[in-house]
């Protein structure tokens, strides 16, 4: 994830937030105030994402032998919470207060239109940068954009893209609310737009929270990588069968591989040691994401291990037993 993408998004959001707040106070528009809250939430999000990038880059140490890669997932989860608490809740409050409160007269709607136009132009700059970043990452992984958003292991780029997409959508909702208020004279439309913005932000926060929760819990690597690692292990001349294969994402572009392998019984202890070292090195050389490899020799006839594998995955195509 590029720090430039996060810094650009944060700078844009801060500038836009100030403009929206001024416009909201001048016009009395709930939708504009909701959008100001949206931009404040986005600015906090960028600060959290910068913290995620910095913290996750720390090298491994005695207390964290696998590094700090999962810190990126933790801070990105907090960013999702920030979107909900700072943005969605405020927008919903403003919206319902306007809908069920006393009618409010709209003043100087042209100010809101000017600010919305400036905000849309600035958000487009940030969105283009985030989109390019995510597309580059998807191309590097050999995935479509949709698959990368679903299976990618870097939540920071996904957060910025979702956030900017929501920002552009929110601006259109605010424009509709201000315009309908001006046309009908009813502030209810302003409130409806604010509620719609709140629902949009809550949905984005839910998507990001669910993705980061899965990564924090310990999601396996992509199916493509799992299949490739299994094929590489199975192709080793010393291997009779891959009995169990577990993978876990321990950070962006960092995968832990744990394999239980049934080796040729004719191998000596020294041969077995050399084979494990060689196979681990080959996996790391063939797959850039594989950073830690543990290979355990086991007999494929072990009933307890077989039961555990079947309970976790069910009967796999490569089982063969």
TrEMBL record:
Report domain Cation efflux protein transmembrane positions.
7-216
Q: Does the keyword Glycoprotein apply?
A: no
Coarse class of the primary localization is: membrane
Q: Which UniProt keywords apply?
A: Membrane, Transmembrane, Transmembrane helix, Transport
Domain of life of the organism encoding this protein: Bacteria
Q: Where in the cell is it found?
A: Membrane
Q: Which topology term describes how it sits in the membrane?
A: Multi-pass membrane protein
> Transmembrane segments in this chain: where?
6-26, 73-91, 111-128, 160-180, 192-209
* UniProt keyword annotation of Translocase present: no
Question: By what name is this protein known?
Answer: Cation diffusion facilitator family transporter
Tell me what organism the protein belongs to.
Actinokineospora soli
